Amino acid sequence: MAEARIEVRLRPRGHADELLGLVGGVLQAKVSAPPVEGKANKALCRLVAKRAGVAPSRVSVVRGEKSRDKVLLVEGVDEPTLMGRLGA
Question: If phi over 0 gives left and psi between -120 and 50 gives alpha, with beta otherwise, what is residue 21?
Fold first, then answer.
């Protein structure tokens, strides 16, 4: 099964949920959810899943659960396809 990992720099408590593009190979994202009880991570996973065209359950945080710098694992899509769908 295809899967891809992507580095993300997350800004919680933004005005809207959006992906801001790549800077130095790291996807910049902001979500309106606060970084409390994993809410910001869940919002990030939903946002990436929607853009990647996979179910939210197929996106998980594999590193940086309590950090702004994270690594996400996206199942069901390979890396070149994922980067294209994320507009990177």
Answer: left
Q: What is the pTM of this model?
A: 0.93
Query: Can you give the residue range of the structural domain that contains 16?
Result: 3-85
Nearest to 52 by CA among 29, 74, 72, 22: 74
**Distance in angstroms (rounded) separating the CA atoms of residues 67 and 3:** 23
Q: Domain containing 66 — which CATH number? A: 3.30.1200.10
Burial zone of 59 (CB within 10 Å; 0-12 exposed, 13-18 middle, 19+ buried): buried
- What tens-digit pLDDT sequence spans the chain (88 residues)? 799 999 999 999 989 999 999 898 899 999 999 999 999 999 999 999 999 999 999 999 999 999 999 999 999 999 999 989 987 5
